[in-house]
Amino acid sequence: MWKDVLNNSDKKKKYINYVNDWEQKIHSFLEFDPERTSAESLSGGGRFSGVPYAVKDNIAVKDYRLTCGSKILENFVSPYDADVIGKLHSSGAVPVAKCNMDEFGMGSSTDNSALAVTNNPWDTGRVSGGSSGGAAAAVAAGLVPFSLGSDTGGSVRQPASFCGVYGLKPTYGAVSRYGLVAYASSLDVIGVLSRDLNLLGDVFDMIKGQDEKDQTTVKLDPDLPSDLQIDDGKPVFGYLGGDLGLDKSVEAGYRNCIDMLIKQGYSVKEISIPALDYVIPAYYTIATAEASANLARFNGVRYGYRSKGAETPLDLMKKTRHEGFGDEVKLRILLGTYVLRSGFQDRYYIKAQKIRTKIINDLASLFKTIELLILPAFPTPAFRHGEAELTQYQQKVADKFTATANLAGIPALSFPAGVYGGLPVGLQLFAPHSREKLLLKGAAIIGREIPVPEVPGYRSIEDICGGQGR
Amino acid sequence: MQKEELFVTASLARLELDEKEAEKLNEAVTGMIEYFSLMDKIDVDDLPPTTHAAAKVNRTRKDLPSDISLADKMVENAPEKEGRFITVPNVL
Questions:
Q1: In angstroms, how far is CA A343 from the centroid of its own chain?
Q2: Which residues from B are below 8 Å from A216, CB to CB?
Q3: Structural domains in chain A, sorted by start
Q4: Which end of chain A is more exposed for a tag (fewer CB within 10 A), N or C?
Q5: Predicted TM-score (pTM) of this structure
Q6: Domain residue limits at B17
Q7: Of B1, B47, B54, the CB nearest to A358
Q8: Cβ contact A335:B29 at 8 Å
Q9: Of A172, A185, A353, A340, whose CA–CA distance to B48 is shortest?
Q10: Average pLDDT, whole number, for chain A?
């Protein structure tokens, strides 16, 4: 049981050995320290008392570094806890690790981290996805029962699909962003990754809710009657039709899931999202514009890396940012600054925001005829390190299935949909605004027929702690 | 995009670029800007822009003092300081 791991020295030793064995192969953690947050200091009788978990390194955990995978924050130690961490503290859960990620959440592979290279547990020559790649790899390998990530354009769901686990992006505003380092504030949301759908739902229940320190947090609508009747009634599924340009293993997983639902007697309708082709230009316009403003604070003055030998404050800022940021971050800052330059705003930023309205309207009318939408998470399974299989540009274009939910602010969940050629394939479900319960029930229906895969070398915590120590 | 434009943009972003990375970034930025022009093809003139996914009302909190002070720990994270002052190169 995960609950006993940290308060029994024999079990803890076995657990740490298991983590270290895997970490030599996958490097999912930037820091791992089961002692740092003492379990005794947390509420004793909470629901997750003593349960360890891992946190993406852009979410603040007191006394842990908060690097965002960047050289510019490499030695920054967080003086406080994010709201989600405070909520989990009160449940008794213990943060034990910070997870590697693409620098500031910008990427689809975790290869854009300036600090470590994370490998996919299914094939160490491949990426674990991004930007929450460390959080997904750790959960898939069984190093923690759940982890927290952040999702701006698919950064929880895409790595979850690459590693064969569940990944939830909640409704925008359902979870406080206090203590999450901002990338694109109108899109960012903290999410949960786990192999266990029930646990994922419980963690979401624990971290959601209005927070006075984040004025964009919303109170979710109470569960609607239809959410609670799924076990008896059958939800109407929609799926995205047409040629979606999928890799053949993802296509096979997608077809298999739809066919399974039809065979099980569910009503499944083919649909389309008319503005889907405009999602990526609109998403990258909005995300980079917001990023260029949010990342202005990293200038070497008050915290983080500082360039040596600058002669004026302006020079200090320019040199610090030149030396401290990686290529992808520089690209996005430049893009965002460009689209906000005077004279260009109508053509790019305002246009993108109008397209965002169109996407919201498209989805709202879809959800009048269906309850849940199935679509791919990413067109390919986990790709190889480097750009040989997918260039950075192709990786961006491939975000269209995930970024749609961020533009619309609706909840989305990626779920494992089988293993093809030794690699997991993941798909997604979308639900209307604040209908996370419905989303989880949909995934549970599918999970009964298509279970979560086990990566070779995975051991359950009972097996790890019950087995012979070394 | 003209290289000159890239350097103007970089300066606005408080970002120094060396010649080699400017070459590489110019290609990547130009490629993305060209891709963004795909947005010219959709007619959404009649729609209002969405500035926020969940903007309903402006929610504020009371401006109350708190006894939790992070100031000392914040100052500890400063790259260069004299006592409790954060230092920067001479402004004038």
A1: 35
A2: 52, 54-55
A3: 2-218+441-466 (3.90.1300.10)
A4: C
A5: 0.96
A6: 3-40
A7: B47
A8: yes
A9: A353
A10: 94
